[in-house]
Amino acid sequence: MDIEITALYSGSGSKNVYLYAAVTEEKGYEPYTAGGGSDHPPHLWKKWLLNNGNTGFETLTLTSGTPVTKTWTVPVSTARAVSGISSADNFLTVAALLDGDHTSHRNVISAADSNMAPTIDIGVKTFTLSNPSAPNGGYINGDVLNLQASVVNNGVDAYVDGGDVRFFYKSGINKNYVGSTQTLSNFASNGATQTFYGQIDTTSIPASAYQTTFGVELSNLVADKSGTNNQGTEIVPHDLVPVARKAQVIGNNEIERGDNFLIEAKTTFNDAVDTNTSFFTFDLEVSPAGMEQWFNGNMITGGEEVSQEGTSNEHREYLVKPGMDMGAGYYDIRVRSIDSRMQTSDWLVTDNGFELKNALPVITSEPVPTVKVQTSTKVSIVNNINDAETDLDQLIITSSSPNFVAWHPATEEIEVYFENIRFVNGQATASGIEISVNDGVDTGFGTLLFNVIENGQPRWAGVEKQYVNEDAASSLFLLPYLSDTDADGGIASSEDLVLAIIDNTNPELLNVDLNGFALNYETSNPDINGETTITIRASDGEQVADQMITIAVSPVNDAPRLDLSELEGLRLKVGEQKVIYLNEIVSDIDGNVAEVVVTANNPIPGSARVNFLDNTLTLLWEDEGLQTVTIKVEDRYDSETYVLVVDVYDSMPMTVGENTDSDLRVSVSNVYIDEVPEVTMFLNKDDVTITSLTTTWQQCNSLTGICSLNVILEHDITAKNTGWTFDPLNGQIDQTGMQKKDYVALAKVVAIAANGDKFEFKDSNLKWTAEDTAPGPESMTDEEVNELVSEIEGMISAKKTELDGMEKGTSEFDEATLELEILESELEEACEYTTCIEQNSGSSEPSSSGLDLSVILVVVGVVIAGLLAGLMFMRGGNGEVGEVTVNWANELPANDAIANSMYGGAQEIFQQPVATPAPAVTQVPAGALPLPPGGLPAGWTMEQWAYYGHQYQQ
To answer: Which residue has the higher pLDDT, 53 or 918?
Structure first.
């Protein structure tokens, strides 16, 4: 660690001093043994900084304006690392100038430590790396990585000494620098940053590397305090070529012919990029064992999802459907994995992965041949029966079905005969014949289907039972239920059929007619029920077919009804009772109203009550808002639920604003800093007679968010025709006026009408804010200036009268005298813009006070400042204490115990007497704040001003 200590003398002549200096640990390495043992002592001494002969402290002879510098080089390890703090950061140099040697008590002239000097610290703020070729991260040899580094000035001041920026990657522990060395520009201030870019071609990185560290390094910095932030790195995993694992059949690998089975595919996760099976896909193929005749085709599908994800058996499953042309025997399986960068592993073979057993004869019902009813027909079964090892004409086909006639192997046909057409729910349905097929080894069983068609007779599909409610009508379209064929079984148009009603088993139940293909029916009586069967005949001119259709009339008992039309939009005042006579609004078309039960429900217990004795519904609420009443009416058969919405109100809205259309027109004037606002109101609400009017006003500050006043005013309603003009804060700020960003808000208005109705306004946005001071006479018209003069003269007269009644020499008399002086000064200023009548000014003894007006104004300013500070505390409300302002002229640095503690208890150093400086023009150091109008504050040095001046101004 290079240490440099510079002393500068600003007095006259020269001065001999001793340099008392040492290296300490800012935080001691050994913790205290007392207490919990977790605290470390501060400023632990480690080494004296002595003269060249190590015989004592350095002595300096200082002359005015000439700096003297002493240097030492000390190992950084002198200060030990502790609690996450490096040795460099824990290294603290302490120095003091004494007026004599160390043999006796000496006076400290000046003292400092290395933390007091502005920190120089340039470091890497961010380092980022991106690979456009790798959406999932990582890199493959040959990828070009984009690098970006942001370097920041963490020091106190500007940094202009330059330095180098280099990008690198590591091979083992060695750094390999890439690209050209880039140079740091100047950092204008603390927090300033510079950005650097680079690229790294990964071609030369070892192909076997699991991951590589990439980074940026800062070097050749001057006086950099901390080297721990001079490097930024990022570790990027190497995307390696995947390694597949052997594919295995899930379950039994002896596969029966015609069965499907699953194969699981796995891979080894050999890098930090493709970290689970979801990053991989697989190619899967099979071959007869040892033949290397690999194929896939459409027989292997699946693999879309990962099975047992997150476990050691994570894999993808593929469905294998062995073809009927595959011979029996063993098959090999091979698999390869493909990662997210489409890197493909080598094929990995599983020998004798599965065994395909002998193929059973396969029987399929598709395609379904068509045969005529009551006709012996030969049908080819080439597309319905198959055996992998046996030709079709060598198979033996038999059946016990009465519809089976014979098997003709020479022509590969089966002969069948059907006496009837099979119908299901009125629809003609394929008929099946179960057959057995033997290939000489195994026997397979299956069903062949046949479409059996008619020989020209019209056919009906089954017509389901129909239902209709009592006192109702319906219709049924019959064409979709009909079909017809010609003599050869070909399809004929059903629209050419003729329909007729030939029977109705209960003609008194329904009125039935047929209009083309539409069967229309209607109940003959509103209260009739039962069922009837209608017979419909369809004819194609040669053959006929009949269909019976059953129609049932469902009995209906209507629920009681509630007529709420007169209660729509019901509004009910809070606390006001509403009685509804239910007998007047309930009806029951099917029963006796007296047997109807009515119940009502509302979330608020007792607010909606039904009295079963007089059948009334009573509504009553104590809180405003929309209320929903659920009313249920029921008899012994059915029930119905109704909802009644009631608007329960406590007060009606009242409009308030500055426009003439508002119910209450409000304007606020004199909203200035240090002034008292004035309100003018007019009542424009004429639809009712208002008998009481109350307003609530608040004074708040938009900067602090604190409301200090809440004033409720009851207005004389007899003045409603002429309006009201008043102080909204009721005289509570007469002495201070409004402050910057104070605002007056109309928070609430309550008006009571003669009929008892209440009207209310609630709003937090109707407010007036004091942004500026009141305009002076220079911006007023002549009339306004004359009015101001008259007002000030009246105040002067009143103040003089007040003084006449006071005892001289008291604080009240002196305060009133100062207020009179201020009023006369304001009058004198106003008189510059108009003609004033000369009058006596001052207090009862204007000349004997001996106070110059400027002195008085300064004192008044101090008094006002004190009042304002007190007001800031009082406006907190509820006993809250505001932020205490520190007087930095007195608190720093001599009397600031907190600041002194950072020097290890060096408070006495800052309490040494300070010699009175000779009058001279003080030069402000570069970067320091300008001095206040009175120059350096008492007891301050220019160095202290450079570091703490901003706190003094605050």
So the answer is: 53
